[in-house]
Amino acid sequence: MPIVKKTYKDQVVDYVYQLLLTNELGPGDQLKESLLAEQMGISRAPIREAMKELIMNGLVDYRPQVGNFIPVLSPKQIVDSYTTRGVLEGYAVMETCDQFSAEEVDKLENLTEQMENYADKKNHKMVIEAGGEFHDLLISKNNNVQLLEYTDRLSLKLHILFFKYLGKLYGPSEVGRRHREIVESVKSKDLGLIEKVIRQHYVETGSKIAIL
Amino acid sequence: MPIVKKTYKDQVVDYVYQLLLTNELGPGDQLKESLLAEQMGISRAPIREAMKELIMNGLVDYRPQVGNFIPVLSPKQIVDSYTTRGVLEGYAVMETCDQFSAEEVDKLENLTEQMENYADKKNHKMVIEAGGEFHDLLISKNNNVQLLEYTDRLSLKLHILFFKYLGKLYGPSEVGRRHREIVESVKSKDLGLIEKVIRQHYVETGSKIAIL
DNA sequence: TCGATGTCTAATGTCGACATTAGACATCGA
DNA sequence: TCGATGTCTAATGTCGACATTAGACATCGA
């Protein structure tokens, strides 16, 4: 079993991400290098390097010589990010819709049912997990590395919002409906419909979160 | 006239980018922190921070504890990046096609003629400049900040390739045709056509560069 | 001759210290 | 009272030094 090598920078990125997911850090909060360094028992050098990465992923707002802050996203920024995510995933799935086997389509339907069931039980964590699996499978046929990279990058950011607001967004049957729509469009192999449905799937979520 | 503040990190990013554009740095080359630091007369700290940014923009390949290298892009990676760029721009333009004034459409046509003329004179630098202006105007109506950010990021990478190969890609009349197609699609206000034409515009370039 | 092991070093990862700057707050004068 | 100016400091930007590691190359034994 090989040792997993991880620089301090990578561990800092993960740590800060967890703080964001668990709401220990939120919009407007400042990330002070010295404080984080002290908390983690390391020097500021890897902290600063981690900051650069979080900045590039839109998870931190950097004000030169002032400080690093957790972004306060405007409703428009939220919608913009979700919209962009939808454009990327819509295209990715549209391009590969003829590559899904019957088993895989079944799997998508199954995950949709799981999401609805978990939502019914108000198990948001599992809704998100099944949802992640759903979208991962959906996009898995596309191997455009650039598109997948940008999709993943955006997911980091949007996952925080989604994690925070899921309970307030959709009822159980809505959760089911929204994902069944996607599965139906994939089954239809109607390229225009696939992109339209997936884009709308994201715009809908972005718009809802934007008004919370 | 305000002083333009620029950290060493930003200057390093710019410097390395220039080396890439002018082919003083190319695929497979290693970027050694100490060497760059020495060349620029600064410490390694801002060099390392610049590296992180270049890595996030796909301009540097980072191998932990081994070194930083200029990526050798496979044909597939080239096509993937161009394709992704086309998906983003296609959507951006499709969404705003009804916001172009007659003057702006004229401007696009004018820039197309300029590109053709410069290509005729083999003035690649000016072809690129007019082309940049063309695509900037095209996308200028869309104010989706996330989408524009990703488009800009991708442009950094693709600009290097384009700059390097432009002379080998298209004859003057092809340069004109390709851009006129875009303008005609915008004038048609046929949403599906706009996305299709712009996507193809990028896929065509990516595919051509990929076989060079 | 070839695979295993050892050695060395160039390059990166991280450290603690120092320099610089933005912004908060105090002071002063009109 | 309010705008201009001054002061101070917390936070970032950068420095040079030291620790660690991957990989190149040498050596050795089967």
What does this structure look like?
- The structure is a homodimer of 212-residue chains.
- Chain A is mostly helical and 212 residues long.
- Chain A folds into 2 domains: 8-69, Arc Repressor Mutant, subunit A (Orthogonal Bundle), CATH 1.10.10; 75-210, GntR ligand-binding domain-like (Four Helix Bundle (Hemerythrin (Met), subunit A), Up-down Bundle), CATH 1.20.120.
- Chain A has helices at residues 8-21, 33-40, 44-56, 75-96, 102-120, 124-139, 145-169, 172-188, 191-210, and strands at residues 30-31, 61-63, 67-69.
- Chain A has a 3-stranded antiparallel sheet with strand order 1-3-2.
- In chain A, α4 packs antiparallel against α9 and α5 (102-120) packs antiparallel against α6.
- The radius of gyration of chain A is 19 Å and the shape is globular.
- Chain A starts with 7 loop residues before the first helix and ends with a helix.
- The mean pLDDT of chain A is 94.
- Chain A binds chain B through residues 5, 7, 45, 48-49, 52-53, 56-58, 64-65, 76-77, 80-81, 83-84, 87-88, 91, 144-147, 149-150, 154, 192, and chain B through 5, 7, 45, 48-49, 52-53, 56-58, 64-65, 76-77, 80-81, 83-84, 87-88, 91, 144-147, 149-150, 154, 192.
- Chain A binds a DNA duplex (30 and 30 nucleotides) through residues 7-9, 30, 32-34, 42-46, 48-49, 63-68.
